Every structure is written in C-alpha cells, then in structure tokens.
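Q: Given only this backbone (270 positions), what sequence would you predict?
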C-alpha cells in the first residue's frame, strides 16, 4: 500500500468525487444482501456485501501513514485507489488505462489549440466501485470488487444436490453422477453461476446449424443429440469446464485477431 500526495487545492475536488460516487453506489434506501456466490453484476438492485477483514497494511490508516511509501507514477500501477474518511474506505478500480502518457495526450494550450502534455498524469474516474465500512465490503460488480481484494473464497460451489438438479435440465443430456465424480472447485462454481441464468435454454433455442457452428467456433468438444439437447462432455474435467465456461459466456473471440480469450466480466459493450 502507498499513499498519493495531493496539493491542497485539489483535495476537496478528489474528496467530492469519492463521496459522491459512494452515495451513488450505496444509497440510504438501498437494501443489503450478503454475497451468495453469484458473480453476475446486479446493477440497480440491492447492494451485496461480504464480511471481510482488511489486510494488515490498513491498520496504518489513519494514524500511522508516515510509515507508508509514496506512490510513484513512473513505477506503480495499483489495482485500486481509495479515499478514507470517518471509518469508511471508498475504492475505485485502477489499471493501465488510467495512466496518461506524455506521448499520447494532448491538452488545450491556447483557445482551441492543443499541445502535447509534458508531464505524466492519471485519471480519477467519477465513480466508486466498492465501499468498506463496519467490517463489510460492499459492491455491485463481483469483477470490480475482485480486482480490489481477492474474493474467490466467497464464491459458493454447487452442492451435489444442485448438480443433480442441473443434470435434470430439459435442455441438457448430462450425467450428474459422472459430473460429481470428476468435478473440481471450478466446475462446481461454474455450475452454481450457470444455474442462475437462462443461458442454456437460450443456446438450445437457436437453430441446429447455429448451435453446431458456435460449438466449432469456440472449440467446444460437445455434441447435440437427436432431440436437440446439448450433451455435456464428461470424459475429463477440462472439457467439461470449457463447455461450462462457454455456456456462461466466459469465452469470447477478439474482433481483430480472432483469438480466443476468457473473461468473468459481464459488462456489455453498448
């Protein structure tokens, strides 16, 4: 953990960004739900929390910050930045896109004329992705919150009973006994998430030609049976998990290189 030194003339502006962002993320009227392992974002609904202990470094705040080193824009790319006030930690996700490089950034110099910025800078966005207060870590997007603190341990796994129910899906040909035999933690978490969506029925609702084309396009070793159901591969866990990732829409192709990638982000490109 490092601190960012601010000139006095920008302190209030930065504070207002975080305070306003926190007020939008967690309103006074919003109900709270304990995180149930569902990683899908639920924007606009109740706010989710986990009971959480902050890492030891946070014990320095607010009284022992002199022991902390200072942020260096030439070397440091943090995963998140935060504002502390009256027992609340207000977090914003941070990544390379927040860094403004001298060679790529133009600024207004005179009137409508632009000149190259000579100093490095970084962008603070007008939002807050997570809040920590009273022993609870609040968020609405699991993907963003997981970038701030690892939350994998809070994602629940499908029980044997839930796998049995999943295997009874009318759109699947699935051997639940075999799935339970080969399933690992990843399998159970993927099934847990997939069971809360309509992705399987949406996929099966497509034409046979489209379904076969999508399976081939994304390298999924699964077949469609004579009844139009998807046969889940259970020869090995890696093939099963890849199929579940496909159904969870965690696999996508790059529009430029056509390469396959994996992602847990469900943020839509609008």
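A: Predicted residues:
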């Amino acid at each position: 953990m490092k601190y960012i030194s601010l000139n006095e003339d920008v302190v209030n502006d930065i504070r207002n960004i975080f305070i306003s962002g926190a007020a939008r993320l967690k309103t006074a009227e919003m109900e709270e739900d304990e995180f149930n392992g569902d990683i899908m974002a639920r924007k606009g609904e109740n706010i989710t929390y986990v009971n959480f202990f902050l890492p030891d470094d946070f014990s320095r705040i607010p009284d022992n910050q002199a022991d902390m080193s200072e942020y260096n824009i030439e070397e440091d790319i943090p995963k998140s930045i935060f504002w502390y006030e009256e027992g609340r930690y207000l977090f914003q996700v941070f990544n390379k896109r927040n860094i403004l490089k001298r060679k790529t950034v133009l600024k207004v110099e005179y009137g409508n004329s632009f000149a190259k910025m000579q100093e490095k800078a970084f962008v603070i966005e007008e939002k807050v992705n997570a809040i920590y207060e009273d022993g609870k870590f609040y968020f609405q997007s699991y993907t963003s919150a997981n970038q701030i603190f690892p939350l994998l341990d809070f994602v629940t796994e499908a029980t044997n009973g839930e796998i049995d129910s999943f295997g009874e899906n009318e759109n699947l040909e699935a051997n639940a006994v075999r799935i339970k035999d080969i399933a690992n933690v990843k399998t159970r978490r993927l099934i847990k998430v997939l069971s809360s969506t309509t992705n399987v029925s949406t996929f099966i609702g497509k034409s046979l030609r489209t379904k076969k084309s999508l399976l081939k396009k994304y390298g999924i070793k699964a077949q469609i049976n004579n009844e139009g159901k998807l046969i889940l591969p259970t020869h090995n866990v890696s093939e099963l998990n890849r199929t579940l990732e496909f159904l969870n829409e965690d696999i996508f192709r790059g529009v430029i290189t056509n390469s396959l990638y994996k992602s847990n982000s469900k943020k839509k490109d609008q």
